[in-house]
Amino acid sequence: MAKYHHTPEPVSAKVKYPIYRQLTVQETVCTTASKTRGIGINYVPVKLEPCVVLRGKWLHLAGFPVGQKLSIVVNQAELVITPKQTEPNPSVEN
């Protein structure tokens, strides 16, 4: 697995928002089922995909506690991550 390359920017403890983080897009291996090439010879094709790892106390401080469901909006060269809004359960009429 690739090593994580990130450098946190020094920020005053009193500064709340905005907090800027600089991350590097890494590569990860997308596993696929092994394929048979011949009798007794199997191989697994390697497929690399981009990967970004988000973790740290700053996620909790920004309102993303452990177990929080997320909504991610994908635009060209932009990801917007927000807490997923819980949908109210429709009431059942008797």
Automatic annotation (TrEMBL):
One of its GO terms (biological process) is RNA metabolic process. It comes from the Bacteria. Residues 43-83 form the Toxin SymE-like domain. GO terms for cellular component: cytoplasm. It holds the Pfam family SymE_toxin. InterPro entries: Toxin_SymE-like. Transmembrane segments: none annotated. GO terms for molecular function: hydrolase activity, acting on ester bonds; RNA binding. This is Type I addiction module toxin, SymE family. It comes from Thalassomonas actiniarum. The lineage of its organism: Bacteria, Pseudomonadati, Pseudomonadota, Gammaproteobacteria, Alteromonadales.
